[in-house]
TrEMBL record:
<dbReference type="InterPro" id="IPR029016">
    <property type="entry name" value="GAF-like_dom_sf"/>
</dbReference>
<keyword id="KW-0804">Transcription</keyword>
<dbReference type="InterPro" id="IPR027417">
    <property type="entry name" value="P-loop_NTPase"/>
</dbReference>
<dbReference type="InterPro" id="IPR025944">
    <property type="entry name" value="Sigma_54_int_dom_CS"/>
</dbReference>
<dbReference type="Pfam" id="PF02954">
    <property type="entry name" value="HTH_8"/>
</dbReference>
<dbReference type="InterPro" id="IPR058031">
    <property type="entry name" value="AAA_lid_NorR"/>
</dbReference>
<dbReference type="InterPro" id="IPR009057">
    <property type="entry name" value="Homeodomain-like_sf"/>
</dbReference>
<keyword id="KW-0067">ATP-binding</keyword>
<keyword id="KW-0547">Nucleotide-binding</keyword>
<dbReference type="InterPro" id="IPR003018">
    <property type="entry name" value="GAF"/>
</dbReference>
<dbReference type="GO" id="GO:0005524">
    <property type="term" value="F:ATP binding"/>
</dbReference>
<protein>
    <submittedName>
        <fullName>Fis family GAF modulated sigma54 specific transcriptional regulator</fullName>
    </submittedName>
</protein>
<dbReference type="InterPro" id="IPR002078">
    <property type="entry name" value="Sigma_54_int"/>
</dbReference>
<dbReference type="Pfam" id="PF01590">
    <property type="entry name" value="GAF"/>
</dbReference>
<dbReference type="InterPro" id="IPR003593">
    <property type="entry name" value="AAA+_ATPase"/>
</dbReference>
<dbReference type="Pfam" id="PF00158">
    <property type="entry name" value="Sigma54_activat"/>
</dbReference>
<feature type="domain" description="Sigma-54 factor interaction">
    <location>
        <begin position="352"/>
        <end position="577"/>
    </location>
</feature>
Length: 674
């Protein structure tokens, strides 16, 4: 602990033990009217008196494990996708000044992050990183946590922080609200070092406020595209291009949404102080001096200076631009059913599932993203159907008329993968030959490039692929000028890319380019639609109908399917070939399947400590996924029910995973030993 940290701790202790004048507030929604110093001191007091934090205890940044982080990311997935462009544009303006850009959810967990890869280690140590937890209850006074607590944009600069660990940092944050006034996320820019004066961050605060407003408005327009949208501004010149206030009306003329500035303005118009009153449900005519049927006068086609509108109570003049509800988009048979209902799953995607709830949720997410520009990452065990999933995404998208080019990064020899992907000019390297060759990336122009087993791509080629994704250009070997390509990249791997990034085997910047949205395909042993899959595979095979005996079906259900769908296809193909009279019996199944035991039976001896003695168990022999599961189990003192709830699976699924990785409870091992 250095002298500056020691003095800071003393200042926090003195401020939080001082008696406040009677009636002075310690926090709440009226913070905007108070000085910055009062806001910070109120936050310090909350940290000590409400959250029980100790200012003398300096804590390292808390980074959530990847499993927990993904849970937070999935909850805010749609909003984060809309916010991403705003984050990128903001980062382009502040990156040269040493800032990183963070987006956190309403719990203060960083779900998106843009920063300089050269300072990765320092940023992670400081908590300016993906997965960092910045709530006041955990990190003390900080820009994210205090913005969450107060609902106000602010800068927490150096010694404003509660924890002395954070006093080198300067952090500026603004809350992001949904169209009902709910606090959804926090936009933050932070730097590891900065000038001493807090005033040096005035521009940072203005930028964060501006981009927070842009993100909120983008989310509002997308959320209410099926409603009447009122764009309002005090200036006729800016009402169409940069509205200050946004209000959404339903068909009856009642408010169904608003941005934060409209909420504040209309609440003030109604003469209400304190907490902002709800506006949803309020009739248009109660707030504006116009009739609902007059809205046609305010459409974009009329000159903006002729679209003046008065507020009903104060008579203040605003200018209005009206957007009528957008017509429902109907791409053939896969149309949106109606406003407010979910998009139907397109037929190519729907054909992958027979009712498994987990997979169906993934398909519903995929249906929303089939025509989005973001790249997709598919995780799943070997044989779990990652390429089928990628092809279905392609066939369901507007790119279906273009090529689908699949590249198995693990199957191409390392010496050839560069020329296979990027192509080459004649005689550009030893063995190139006299003719030019288009690479697979160019072959995918106008369609989809599927990079299977992306985790096995050599690291030196990852930077070249990053350029393709960032610039939309590909440079062949031996060429001096790049060629533009228009493609959508879908990647897949059975590896944990997070682990590869941590070990330095996979570029983090490429990982975030590829991981626009992630889909996790369940292994076959955890799917509930096995009967549907069996029937589908038997029906689709040539040679006429084949029946499956109850005993054979039961044996298929008992098998653990380490090879997943690929293994199931091979098993049924074999059984179909050897069965008699179109009837598959147990004896017609391959030997490894006909003799298999159920997952729960396989798990039982492991859980009872039957195979390996306690002292022989070595957790370091586990895979990365097994190590992560072991960490959860140890942290919960081997309370299996608690771990199952924490990672969101049933106890039986947890038993299966423990059996898969050879993990056994020490309690069960000890019982088995006796």
């Amino acid at each position: 602990m250095d002298m500056r940290q020691r003095k800071h701790i003393e200042a926090v202790v003195e401020a939080t033990t001082r008696t406040l004048p009677e009636g002075q507030p310690t926090g709440g929604p009226m913070m905007a009217a108070r000085t910055h110093e009062a806001i910070i001191e109120s936050s310090w007091r909350r940290c000590v008196h409400q959250y029980g934090l100790d200012p003398s205890r300096m804590q390292e940044a808390r980074i959530l494990p990847q499993t927990r982080l993904r849970e937070h990311q999935q909850r805010i997935d749609d909003f984060a996708r809309i916010a991403r462009h705003g984050l990128q544009t903001l980062y382009s303006q502040v990156a040269g000044l040493g800032y990183v850009v963070l987006l956190t959810d309403a719990q203060g967990v960083t779900v998106d992050y843009l920063g300089d890869a050269n300072t990765d280690t320092s940023l992670r140590r400081a908590g300016l990183y993906l997965g960092a937890q910045w709530s006041e209850t955990g990190a003390g006074t900080c820009a994210v946590g205090t913005a969450l607590a107060t609902g106000q944009a602010l800068t927490v600069h150096q010694i404003d922080h509660f924890d002395a660990t954070h006093i080198p940092l300067t952090c500026t944050a603004a809350p992001l609200f949904d169209s009902h006034g709910g606090l959804t996320a926090i936009l933050d820019i932070s730097a590891l070092t900065s000038p001493q004066a807090r005033d040096s961050q005035s521009l940072a605060l203005q930028l964060v406020r501006i981009y927070a407003s842009h993100i909120e408005n983008a989310n509002f327009l997308r959320t209410h595209r099926q409603d009447w949208i009122l764009k309002l501004n005090t200036s006729p010149e800016f009402v169409d291009v940069d509205p200050e206030y946004l209000v959404a009306l339903d068909a009856s003329g009642r408010i169904v949404g608003h941005n934060r500035r409209a909420h504040e303005m209309l609440a003030a118009e109604q003469g209400r102080g304190g907490e902002l009153p709800p506006l949803v449900g309020t009739p248009f005519e109660a707030l504006f001096d116009a009739r609902l049927e007059d809205l046609g006068r305010f459409v974009y086609s009329r000159p903006s200076e002729l679209r003046a509108l008065s507020l009903a109570r104060s008579g203040a003049l605003l200018y209005l631009s009206v957007m009528p509800p957008a017509p429902l988009w109907q791409p053939g048979a896969n149309a949106t059913r109606d406003a407010g209902r979910a998009t139907k799953i397109p037929a190519p995607l729907a054909a992958l599932c027979g009712g498994d709830a987990l997979l169906e949720r993934q398909l519903e997410r995929a249906a929303k993203l089939v025509d989005s520009p973001i790249n997709l990452l598919i995780n799943g065990e070997t044989g779990s159907g990652k390429e089928y999933f990628a092809k279905a995404l392609h066939q369901a998208s507007a790119r279906r008329g273009g090529p689908f080019v699949a590249v198995n990064c693990a199957a191409i020899p390392e010496t050839l993968i560069e020329s296979e992907l990027f192509g080459h000019l004649p005689n550009s390297f030893s063995g190139a030959g006299p003719k030019a060759k288009r690479g697979l990336i160019q072959e995918a122009d106008g369609g989809t490039l599927f990079l299977d087993e992306i985790g096995d791509m050599p690291r030196e080629l990852q930077s070249r692929l990053l350029r393709v994704l960032a610039e939309g250009e590909v440079l062949s070997i031996g060429a001096s000028r790049p060629v533009s390509v228009d493609l959508r990249v879908v990647s897949a791997t059975h590896h944990s890319l997070d682990e590869l990034v941590e070990s330095g085997r996979f570029r983090e910047d490429l990982y975030y380019r590829l991981n626009g949205a992630r889909f996790a395909l369940p292994p076959l042993r955890e799917r509930t639609d096995l009967d549907w899959l069996i029937q589908k595979l038997l029906a689709d095979a040539p040679g006429g109908a084949v029946a499956l005996s109850p005993a054979a079906r039961e044996r298929l259900h008992r098998h653990r399917w380490p090879g997943n769908l690929r293994e199931l296809c091979n098993v049924l193909r074999y059984a179909r070939a050897v069965c008699s009279d179109g009837h598959i019996e147990v004896d017609d199944l391959p030997e490894n399947v006909s003799a298999s035991v159920s997952v729960s039976e396989a798990a039982a001896p492991a859980l009872q400590g039957a195979s390996v003695a306690h002292e022989e168990f070595d957790p370091h022999l586990l895979s990365p996924e097994g190590m992560l599961l072991m960490q959860y189990l140890r942290a919960a003192s081997w309370n299996l029910s608690a771990v199952a709830r924490q990672i969101g699976v049933s106890r039986m699924t947890l038993y299966r995973r423990m059996a898969r990785y050879g993990i056994r409870s020490p309690n069960q091992r000890d019982a088995g030993a006796h």
